[in-house]
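Hypothesis: this fold can be encoded by more than one sequence.
Test: take the structure tokens below, design a sequence, compare later.
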């Protein structure tokens, strides 16, 4: 069996040696936040942005975290691994209760867990389904409470889809594990950041790279019917990169994978992400 390199509470070991208490609040309450930090050719992509977002997530749920320790552990996982490309998963949990209690004590020892795994970042054409966004009201926090995403995405999987595009009262939010972009009438659109959307690092890398090349992305509230008029659409994430949507199973649409503006965006993105 391939040994997965991991770190738990500062101790590096292979994953099968790590023991987690069932009273860990990650286990009982999903009282934890996480990051997925991609690396390519041994270089962490947008590392500082991921650490900053982790800091925002822990602040939002009142966990005090030593960011320097996290940074060192992630670098150590990377330098001790043979993988050229992949990602580090890093989770921060409030700690362990002696009994399961909704109200936490302020005296808890924060629990941290990270592991490293390979990823090819191969661009995959996606089959997606539109569904209602039934998640909680703070999707801007990168919490491990992902039950609604899990249910939506497995419903989509049962219909041979790779992802979902969610909407709240008709307004597009994001995908189950990525952010959404689409092209309509020669303009590029993406849902604006609100409490209902994770501020994706890949999303911001793309927006910035396009702007540097004189291409503007329009951020706002868009109805899911706008996707019917789109000529191209794609999802972004740390593990997917920029992945084109080939088919949306439950609306009529006319998506074209060879759209020239999409192709230019993809080229600009790849040259920024994969260096
Ligand atoms: N998911 N929206 C959601 C709900 C996500 O879970 C993710 C990432 C994104 C994109 O964020 P970023 O570009 O920073 O990866 C948007 C990660 C990859 C995951 O949970 O595995």
């Amino acid at each position: 069996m391939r040994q997965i390199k991991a770190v738990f509470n500062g101790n590096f070991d292979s994953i099968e040696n790590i023991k987690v208490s069932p009273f860990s609040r990650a286990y009982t309450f999903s009282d934890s936040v996480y990051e997925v930090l991609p690396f390519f050719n041994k270089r962490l992509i947008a590392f500082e942005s991921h650490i900053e977002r982790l800091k925002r997530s822990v602040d939002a749920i009142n966990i005090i975290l030593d960011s320097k320790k996290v940074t060192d552990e992630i670098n150590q996982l990377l330098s001790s691994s043979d993988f050229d490309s992949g990602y580090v998963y890093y989770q921060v949990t409030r700690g362990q209760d002696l009994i399961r209690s909704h109200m936490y004590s302020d005296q808890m020892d924060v629990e941290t867990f990270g592991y490293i795994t390979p990823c090819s970042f191969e661009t995959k054409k996606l089959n997606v389904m539109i569904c209602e966004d039934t998640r909680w009201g703070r999707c801007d926090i990168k919490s491990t409470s992902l039950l609604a995403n899990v249910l939506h995405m497995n419903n989509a999987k049962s219909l041979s889809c790779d992802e979902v595009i969610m909407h709240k009262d008709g307004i597009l939010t994001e995908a189950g594990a990525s952010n959404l972009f689409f092209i309509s009438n020669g303009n590029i659109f993406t849902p604006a950041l609100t409490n209902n959307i994770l501020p994706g690092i890949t999303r911001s890398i793309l927006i910035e790279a396009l702007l540097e090349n004189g291409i503007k992305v329009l951020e706002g509230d868009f109805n899911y019917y706008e996707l019917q008029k789109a000529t191209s659409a794609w999802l972004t994430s740390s593990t997917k990169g920029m992945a084109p949507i080939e088919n949306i199973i439950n609306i009529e649409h006319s998506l074209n994978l060879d759209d020239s503006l999409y192709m230019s965006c993809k080229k600009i993105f790849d040259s920024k992400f994969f260096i």
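Residues 126-273 form a domain with the D-amino Acid Aminotransferase; Chain A, domain 2 fold (CATH 3.20.10.10). The CA atoms of residues 189 and 218 lie 5 Å apart.
Hypothesis status: open.
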